[in-house]
Each structure stands twice: as C-alpha cells, then as structure tokens.
From TrEMBL:
It comes from the Eukaryota. It comes from Elysia chlorotica (Eastern emerald elysia). PANTHER family: ACYLPYRUVASE, ACYLPYRUVASE FAHD1, MITOCHONDRIAL. It catalyses: 3-fumarylpyruvate + H2O = fumarate + pyruvate + H(+); acetylpyruvate + H2O = acetate + pyruvate + H(+); a 3-acylpyruvate + H2O = a carboxylate + pyruvate + H(+); oxaloacetate = enol-oxaloacetate. This is Oxaloacetate tautomerase FAHD1, mitochondrial. It holds the Pfam family FAA_hydrolase. Residues 13-210 form the Fumarylacetoacetase-like C-terminal domain. GO terms for biological process: carboxylic acid metabolic process. NCBIfam families: PRK10691.1.
Length: 214
C-alpha cells in the first residue's frame, strides 16, 4: 500500500502539459516540443460529476481533451526523474476543456492561454484513483465518447514525456504540493462540443466519468 493511501484530496493547482502526443500536435499543426510545455488552470476550473460543463459566453469552439491526471501527495521541489514517482499519491481522469477559438487568437498574438484554458468548469475531474490501481501510468488506455461516439482513443505509452519526467520537470518550475494535479496532455481526436452533448470518458476500465455540456 502506498504511503499516501489515505490521501484523496484533489483541488490545488492544476499544472497542464501541452503537446505531449505527436498525433495531437500534428492535428493542430503545432510543433512537437523539445521539453515539456506547461501552463496552469486556476482552482476555480474544477468540477466533479453531477456538475455541468458550461460553454463560456462568446466561445464558439469548445473542445474536449481527455487526459491522465497525476495527483501529488508530498511537497516536491527539484526532484529527479528517478525519485519522481515517490511523490505520486494517485491518479484521476481529467478533461482539459479548451476554448479553441480563443486559444487560436491567443496563439496568433503570442498571448497567454489562461482565458482559453482556465474558464469556470474547464477542469472536470473524476474521483481519486489509488496509485496501486494503475501500476504503469505510462501504459494506460484513455478514451472519450461524445453522445456515444468514440472521439479520442489513445494510450499514455505514446506520451513524448513520461509521467516521471513531467513530475521532475514541473517540480523545477513550481513547488508541487499535496493535492496538486498534473494533467499530462491529450491524445489526438479533440473536437467541437455543443450544448446538450454528453461526454463519457475513461482510464482503461479503471474509472469512468460522464459530464453534460450546457
Ligand atoms: C494545443 C493544446 O491545447 C495543448 C494541450 O492542452 C494538450 O493537451 O496537448
Ligand atoms: Mg490539454
């Protein structure tokens, strides 16, 4: 049993990784990064099952991004790749909801992505998954359906930077604290959502979530 077996609190800062799958970078005509590309969402972005995803006012292209979330269990600062997994309490499925139209404008102007990625309800999250339930987070199927139709189906073995590398890198940028969530990037297949759509997503057959888009 992990030393964080009792730890189930997700809810602190959200560190997101962008372009961590080659096919997703390609579908958006983005270059593949040579080191992890990080951005943040505010804690006001979190919602859990039973809450609806709200299309932010003025957004015309809300996209889903299914991602493996890594939940930090102990303060991590400048940790090495080899010790990184000792700081993991567990996992969660996270959706990195993205206002793609706003992100495109921000990208074209060299502006930050905060508004396109950090609006209220932009981080739907599953319940906490114990570390032991995912023995190899770098070989895990993740999938997402919209109205019953499969849109994203990937495996974390295709991540450019594996989980331990992401934790080590992020801990050099920010002090990681218990309850922080690292969203590890999305595989290909992101697409536009409409009001009334129902999203179902899962990490293999370990955990599933369902969210309504409003
Ligand atoms: C282009 C993106 O929105 C980057 C991102 O969030 C990802 O998961 O990749
Ligand atoms: Mg993402």
């Amino acid at each position: 049993m992990s030393k964080f077996a009792q730890f189930k609190e997700i809810g602190k800062k959200i560190v997101c990784v962008g372009r961590n799958y080659r096919e997703h970078a390609a579908e958006l005509n983005n270059p593949v990064p040579s080191k992890p590309m990080l951005f943040l969402k505010p804690t006001s972005a979190y919602i859990s099952e039973g809450d609806a995803i709200k299309i932010p006012k003025g957004c015309t292209d809300l996209n889903h991004e299914v991602e493996l979330g890594v939940v930090i269990g102990a303060t991590a600062k400048d940790v090495s790749i080899t010790e990184a997994m000792n700081y993991v309490a567990g996992y969660a499925l996270g959706l990195d909801m993205t206002a793609r139209d706003w992100q495109a404008v921000a990208k074209s102007k060299g502006h930050p992505w905060s508004v396109a990625k950090g609006f209220d309800t932009s981080c739907p999250i599953s319940k906490f998954v114990e570390k032991e339930k995912i023995p190899d987070p770098n070989n895990l199927d993740l999938w997402l359906k919209v109205n019953g139709e499969m849109r994203q189906s990937g495996n974390t073995k295709d991540m450019i930077f594996p989980v331990e590398h992401l934790i080590s890198f992020a801990s050099q940028c920010f002090t990681l604290e218990p309850g922080d969530l690292i969203l590890t990037g999305t595989p290909a297949g992101v697409s536009k959502l409409n009001s009334g759509d129902v999203i179902q997503a899962g990490l293999a057959n370990i955990i599933q979530v369902q969210f309504l888009v409003q």
